[in-house]
Amino acid sequence: MSEPLVNVQSVSVTLGGNAVLSDVSLTLAPGRITTLIGPNGAGKSTLARLVLGLVSADRGAVHRRKGLRVGYMPQHIKLDDSLPLTVDRFLWLAASGPTSARRAALERAGVAHLRRRAVQQLSGGEMQRVLLARALLRKPDLLVLDEPAQGVDVAGQNALYGLLKEVRDEMGCAILLISHDLHLVMAATDEVICLQRHVCCSGSPESVSRDPAYHELFGPSAGTPNLALYTHDHDHDHDLHGDTRHPDHHHEGPCNHD
Questions:
Q1: For a surface tag, which of 15, 81, 197, 210 has the fewest beta carbons within 10 Å of its beta carbon?
Q2: Regarding predicted confidence, which is higher, 218 or 13?
Q3: Do 132 and 149 sit in the same domain of this protein?
Q4: Are the beta carbons of 141 and 68 closer than 8 angstroms?
Q5: DSSP SS3 for 223
Q6: 161 lies in the same domain as 58
Q7: In this structure, are residues 112 and 100 in contact, taking their beta carbons and an 8 Å threshold?
Q8: What is the domain count for the chain?
Q9: How does the average pLDDT of the chain come out, rounded?
Q10: Is the pLDDT of residue 181 over 80?
């Protein structure tokens, strides 16, 4: 078995006098997608920041593999609307390497055509793809993505999560996702950790969706089959705007999932 990239052992974190995390453990291994779910204030972002080394634990330990390269996609990023900034320049500010590297990252994220577009003109889905390209520039061993599908419609979310699986398969990296919604990541994750300052339950998406602790935290409707066990499997895919693309012929329009 591969050496873990990050091993979080029984950590507790207190911020501003409030216990944010209590006795939380987490192991991130190469080639695996782990998703943190939980309501607002559950400590998800704090745990991600702990993994990134931006927050220190009051108790417990965090071990990172030596030389670990991490790509981080934040939940929000503030840009000055008056600053003329193309996508290419935005990526250059993050990693001033050769143009070919930025082009390759944008292509891998499916937005190579946006290289000369002003970042202020991007849609929510396009900006998320650009932020993913920015994280990929580091050729990371570990990708940490905080609510990566925020502001993107359901079809665009499925396309994004499908892309993350492709990135994992190609690069062999570990991915740590933060989400508030289990059913949206069911088909795109190997392990789920349900957090409410402590670990309520963990395991495969299917086992967590059936766990009483999950239902207690999210309510009785959280595990209905058409939501919690939802997978996206059909003969077409979606572009950034949610329109459908069929592999054998050209067709655009909304996709109905009954």
A1: 81
A2: 13
A3: no
A4: yes
A5: helix
A6: yes
A7: no
A8: 2
A9: 83
A10: no
Structure tokens at 229: 């066990």
Residue type, position 119, single letter: V
Instruction: Work out the end-to-end distance of the chain between its first and last CA atoms, rounded to an integer number of angstroms.
Output: 41
DSSP 8-state assignment for residue 148: T
Structure tokens at 120: 């202020």
The residue segments making up the domain with residue 233 are 1-69+141-258
Please check the confidence at residue 34 and state whether its pLDDT lies above 90.
yes
Residues 257 and 200 in one domain: yes
Residues 14 and 101 in one domain: no
Q: What is the mean pLDDT of residues 31-55?
A: 92
74 is a domain residue: no
Last residue of a domain, one of 111, 139, 167: 139
Mark which of 89, 121, 139 sits at the end of a domain.
139
Distances (CA, A) of 63 to 36, 115, 245: 19, 37, 43
Nearest to 65 by CA among 8, 25, 5: 5
Q: Check residue 220 and give its pLDDT.
A: 63
Nearest to 90 by CA among 54, 124, 114: 114
In whole angstroms, give the CA distance from residue 194 to residue 217: 9
pLDDT per position as a tens digit, 146-173: 988 877 787 888 888 889 999 999 999 9
- Tell me how far apart the alpha carbons of residues 246 and 249 are, in angstroms, rounded to a whole number: 6
155: Cβ contacts below 8 Å, ≥ 6 apart: 238, 242, 244, 255
CATH number of the structural domain spanning residue 5: 3.40.50.300
| pTM for this entry | 0.81
What single string gives the DSSP state of each residue in 171-199? H--EEEEEES-HHHHGGG-SEEEEESSSE
Give the three-class secondary structure for 35: strand
